[in-house]
Amino acid sequence: MSAFARRLAATAAALAVLFLAGVQLERHRTQFDLTADDHLTLSDQTRQVVKAVHSPTTIVVFLRRGEAGRAEAAALLSRYRRLNRRISFRVTDPDEAPGQVRRLNVDPALGGVAIAAGSRSEQVPLASEQDITAGLARLLRPGDATVCFATGHGEVETGLETGEGLSQAAGLLRVNGYKVETVDLLADPNVPARCRSLIVATPTAPLGQAGANMKAWLDGGGRVLFLADPVSTVDLNEVLGPYGLGLDRGIVLEGDDGSRLKDDPITLVLRDYRSASPIVRRLPPAVLPGAQAVSQVDVDQNATVAVARSSAKSYLERQPGQPSFDPATDRPGPLVVAATVEQPRNEGGRIVRPRLAVIGDVDFATNSFLGEAGNSRLFIQTVDWLTLRSDLVSVDPNIPDFRPLELTRSRLGYARLLSGVVVPGLFLLAGALVWAVRRTR
Amino acid sequence: MIEAKGLSRSFGGREVVHDVDFRVGPGEVVGFLGPNGAGKTTTIRMLLGLLRPDRGSADVSRPVGYLPEQFAGYDGMSVRGYLRFMARMKQPPSNEVDAAMARAGVADLARRPLARLSKGQRQRVGLAQALLGSPPAFVLDEPMQGLDPKQVVDARHVVQSLAHEGGAAVLLSTHVLAEAAAICDRVVVIVKGRVVAEERPGDAADLEARFLRLVGQAELA
Amino acid sequence: MRGLRATRATRATWAVVGKELVVLWTSPLPYVVGALLHIVLGTLYVNQLQARGQALAQPLFPLAGFLLIALVPILTMRTLADEARTGSLDLLHAVPVPTRALVVGKWLASWVTTLVVLAPATLFAVLLAWWGNPDRGPIIAGFAGLALLSAAVAGVGLLASSLTSSQPVAAMVGFFVALLLWFAHVGSETTSAGPLLAGFSISERLRSFAGGAIDSSDVGFFVLLTAAALVAAATVVQGRRLR
Ligand SMILES: Nc1ncnc2c1ncn2[C@@H]1O[C@H](COP(=O)(O)OP(=O)(O)OP(=O)(O)O)[C@@H](O)[C@H]1O
Ligand SMILES: [Mg+2]
C-alpha cells in the first residue's frame, strides 16, 4: 500500500507541476496570427499606446448578458492584456453591478466601456480597438491638459448652469481628464501658454485685439474650437479666413424629415458625416438647434475637412424673417455645419501643427442639449482631436476582409448532399463492408 | 518455480485464503484442488500479482504463462491477430505464434474472429496465449473447462510436456479429479482457504475418496 | 537498462495502438459515430453558411467541438472499462505490461480514430475554397484546434473509462466532465475563481483557434490537459490493478 501511496503522491505532484506549467504558459503567451489580414493583431498605433501604460488600468465593458459582442470584447481586451499585464479587464452586466456603473459614471442605458486608472476614468462608447485605444490615450494624456474657455466678449459661460450655459460641457471635459479654465481675453488678449486648446463659444462682442492674438497663437501651433451661432453677428473670419474657412451668415433650414426634428426646420439632426475624421467616427446623429453654415474657402493646399453636412433638401436662409428659398441670396444645401483644419508648418526647423475646428452651432453643447443623442460625443471628440496627438485617436485597426460566398440553390443542395448523405453514407458503407467481410470468416 | 509463502487474504473481513504455503518446482505439474469457493482463484491471483495479499508473498518465475478462470480476448480480433498482439506484449516478446496455435489446436481457427468462437475454442485460444514465449512457469486456472474429450486428452499431453519436456513449473487448478490423477505429480488440496493436504495423487478412485474425506473433515471442523 | 525499458515501453505502446485500432474499427462505433457527426455537423454548418453569406470556416469549429465532446467519450468508453469487465486486462497485468504503454497506446488509438472520423469535415474547406475565397489561416488554425481538443477529450474519456467497468457509465462520465470543461467560462465574471475557471474552458480555447490564432498558451493548455488526464488514468489503472 505504501508503494501506491507513493504513487498517489507522485501523481498529485505531477498534476501540480502540469497546473503550474499551465499558469506559466498563460503568463508568457505568444500568438501566431494566421489570418490573412492580421486582424487578430492589434494595430501599431495601439501597440504604441498600450506600451505607454505604466500604472494598473482596468477596462470594464458594460454589456448585458445575452447581448451580442461580449465574447468578442473579451477576446479583443485579452489582446490588450497580453501586450501589457498592467491592463486588466472585465465584461460586466450593468444591471448586475449598479455600484460600478455609478462609480465609473456610466450611463446604464447606453452602457459602453469605462477605462480606469487610479482615480481617473475615461469612457468610450464601444469595445472596439479604435475606441479603447483612444480611451487609453486620453487616460495617458498628461494631467495638465488644460482646456481654456475664452470670456470677455460675451461668450456663452461655463459657469452658467441654466439651459443656455456650458457648465455640463465643462464638467464633461473634467470627467475626461481635462483641466478646465476660463481666460478673460478682454483683460489680457494673450492666450496663456498653459492652454492646450481654446474654446471660443459664440462671442457677441467684436474680438478686437484678442482676435489678432488668437490668430497668432494658432499660427504658432495653437488649437482653437469656434462654436459659432446664427444669433451672433461677430465676424470671426479674421481668424478663420487664413485657414481656408469662413462662416456664412444666415440660418440653416432643413427640409428633409429624416434630418431634422419633427416639423422643426431649424433643429438639425446630423446624419451625414462624410469624412473619416476622428471627430465624427461612429458618432450617433447629433442634434443642432439652429446652425450657421461653414463655408470652405479653397486655399492652396486643401487641409480643410468638411466633417458634417445638412441634407440636400436644406438651404441657408439669409433672411430668417421670411423663410422661403430665394435663389438670388440663399444658398442651397447640402451645407457644411462643422469643419476642421490642420495645417502643419515648418517653423525654423520645428513642426508646428495648428488645428482649428468650427461648428456652426453652440446650443448643441449647452446644458439643454448636451445630453441629446451624439452631442456630448461630438463635443468631447472634437476637443480630443484638438488636444491629443492625432495618431493616438485615429487608430486604424486591422479589419478582416469581407469574403462573399454565393450559395446558389445548386451549391446548397450539393453541400447538403455531401455532408448529409455522401459522407455519412460512406461511413455506414465502410462499417457494413467490415461487418460483411468478418461474417464470412 | 512457483512459490506461495504464507499467503492470506480477506474480503470484507472474511478471510478466504489463510496462510497458504506451497511450492511448484521446475519440471513439476501440481494440481490445485478444492471445492467451489475454497480460495483457489484468489490464491492464483495473488501469485500473479493481480491481487494484493494481506500477508505473505509469492515468488513466480517470469515470464509466466497465465490462463485465467474466465479467459477473455478482444472480440473484434482474429485468433492470429490476438495471439500476435499478446506475443508482442510478452516480456520478452515472442515470435512463436504459429507454434503456440498448433500446440493448442487452434491453427485452423487462425482467421476467425474471437467473437465467433465456441466456448471450448476460445478456451484453447487462451491456452495458446499462455504458451507464447515458452515461459518457465505456468498458472492455469481450470484450463480444461469446456473442452471436448478429444481436446482434453490433447491438452493433457500439452500440459505434461510443458513440465516434463520443457522443464516448466506448472500449477493448475481443476475440479476433475481424474485429470489431476492422470497428469499431476502432486496435488495441493485447499478447503476454506487452508491447505489441508499436499500429496501424490494416486489413482483417480483413490484420490476421489481422499478428497471427499478431507473436505468432509474440514467442513466439520 | 533504462534505454532497454524505454524501447520495451515504446514497442508495447505501438502494439497497444495497433490492437486498439483493430478492436475499435471492427466494432460499429466509429462508423455510427462518424455518420452521426457529419449529418449533424453538415446540417448545422450549412445553415450557418447560408445565414452569413460569407466564406467563413469559423462557425464550423464550435459546432464540431461540441459534437466531439459528446462523441469522443463514446469512442473511448470501451478502452479500459471493458477490459476491466471482461478480465482481459488481467492478462496484460500478469505479463506485466507497463501501465504507461497501456494508457498512452489506448489514448493514441482513440485520438487517431477521432481524427479519422473528423477528417471528412475538411471537405467543407475544399468547398469554401472552390466557391469562394476563404481565409486559410483560420481554417488551418481551427482544424489544429479541433485536433488538440480531440486529444484532450480522448484523454478525459480514457480517464472516465479507467474509473469504471461499465461502458455507459464511462461514456456519461466522460461527456459530463468534457461538458463542464466546455462551459467552464460561463459565469466566470461573477465569481472570484472565475478567471481561473475560464482558463479551463475548452470552448474558449477553441474559439481562439477558430479565429485564426495559434496561441502558445492554448496549445499548451490542451497538451497539459491531455497529459494530466493520462497521468490520472495511469494512476487509476495502477490503483485498480492491485486491490
Ligand atoms: N473480489 C471479491 N470480493 C469478495 N469476495 C470474493 C472476491 N473474490 C472471491 N471472493 C470470495 O472468496 C472466496 C474464494 O473465491 P475463489 O474464487 O478463490 O474460489 P475458487 O476456489 O476459485 O472457487 P471455484 O472453484 O468456484 O472457482 C469465495 O467465497 C468468494 O465468494
Ligand atoms: Mg476459481
Layout: helices, strands, pairs:
The complex is a heterotrimer of chains A (441), B (221) and C (243).
Chain A: H1 2-27, E1 31-33, H2 44-51, E2 57-62, H3 70-83, E3 87-92, H4 98-103, E4 112-117, E5 120-124, H5 129-140, E6 146-151, H6 167-175, E7 179-184, E8 195-201, H7 209-219, E9 223-227, H8 237-240, E10 245-248, E11 251-253, E12 260-261, E13 264-270, E14 286-289, E15 293-296, E16 304-309, E17 315-317, E18 331-332, E19 336-342, E20 345-347, E21 350-352, E22 355-359, H9 375-387, H10 390-393, H11 409-439
Parallel strand pairs in A: 2-3, 6-7, 6-8, 8-9, 9-22
Antiparallel strand pairs in A: 2-4, 4-5, 10-15, 11-17, 12-13, 13-14, 16-19, 17-18, 19-22, 20-21
Chain B: E1 2-11, E2 14-24, E3 29-33, H1 40-47, E4 55-60, E5 64-67, H2 79-89, H3 97-104, H4 119-131, E6 137-141, H5 149-164, E7 169-173, H6 177-183, E8 186-191, E9 194-199, H7 204-220
Parallel strand pairs in B: 3-7, 3-8, 5-6, 6-7
Antiparallel strand pairs in B: 1-2, 1-4, 8-9
Chain C: H1 2-25, H2 29-52, H3 60-76, H4 78-86, H5 88-94, H6 99-118, H7 122-131, H8 136-163, H9 167-182, H10 194-198, H11 202-210, E1 213-215, H12 216-241
Helix pairs in contact in C: 1-6, 2-3, 2-6, 3-6, 3-8, 3-9, 3-11, 4-8, 6-8, 6-12, 8-9, 8-11, 8-12
Describe the structure.
The complex is a heterotrimer of chains A (about 450), B (about 220) and C (about 240). By secondary structure, chain A is of the alpha/beta class. Helices cover about 30% and strands about 25% of the residues of chain A. The radius of gyration of chain A is 29 Å and the shape is globular. Chain B has about 220 residues and is α/β, with parallel strands linked by helices. In chain B, strand 6 (about 135-140), helix 5 (about 150-165) and strand 7 (about 170-175) form a beta-alpha-beta unit. The longest helix of chain B is centred in the C-terminal third of the chain and has 17 residues, at about 205-220. Chain C has about 240 residues and is mainly alpha-helical. In chain C, helix 3 packs parallel to helix 8 and helix 4 packs parallel to helix 8 (about 135-165). The longest helix of chain C is centred in the middle third of the chain and has 28 residues, at about 135-165. The model of chain C has no long low-confidence stretch (mean pLDDT about 90). Chains in contact: A-B, A-C, B-C. Strand 1 (about 30-35) of chain A pairs antiparallel with strand 1 (about 215) of chain C. Adenosine-5'-triphosphate binds next to helix 1 of chain B.
